[in-house]
Amino acid sequence: MSKRSHVDAEPEDAAQLFRAAVGPLRRLPPQEPPPRRAPPPPRARIADDEAAVPDALLHGAIDASAIESGDELLYLKHGHSPRLLKRLRRSEFSVQDEIDLHHLRAVAAAELLRTFLADSQRAGYRCIKIIHGKGLRSGQRGPVLKALTAHMLRQCAQVIAFASARANQGGSGATLVLLARR
Question: Residue 172 sits in which domain range?
């Protein structure tokens, strides 16, 4: 003789038990969802932000941890057309020279970068590429050479614009630089 509980009842018996326990059903009339309150209008503070940027870029200390390894670098010197930056990001300028700063210490990389920029300007190059790496092995310090490159380029008078390279040119591990004409 087997012991059966009410849980082990046949499916028809269980459905009948449920209907008996719940009672008769009635359909509710369809209802409109409650109206949503309109979100508040956005407040633009662009003027304040743009006024603070040049000072922060020129006089701020290098903080490598502020730049993540996958972050894109973008810069356009004040007074130049945003179209230049757009063309640079699309790789519409031919890269005339490049330098690889991988595996260098910050001091050596800074000196080499300073020399490379001066030599490129003297040679009359318009577009150069700096390979600094993504900083994946820098740990918590963040991408040291990438931050150093961005800082130095912003302070260099002959740099009009710079942007991270496209994926097939090194992605966020390389920077394309547009130099002023002599």
Answer: 67-179
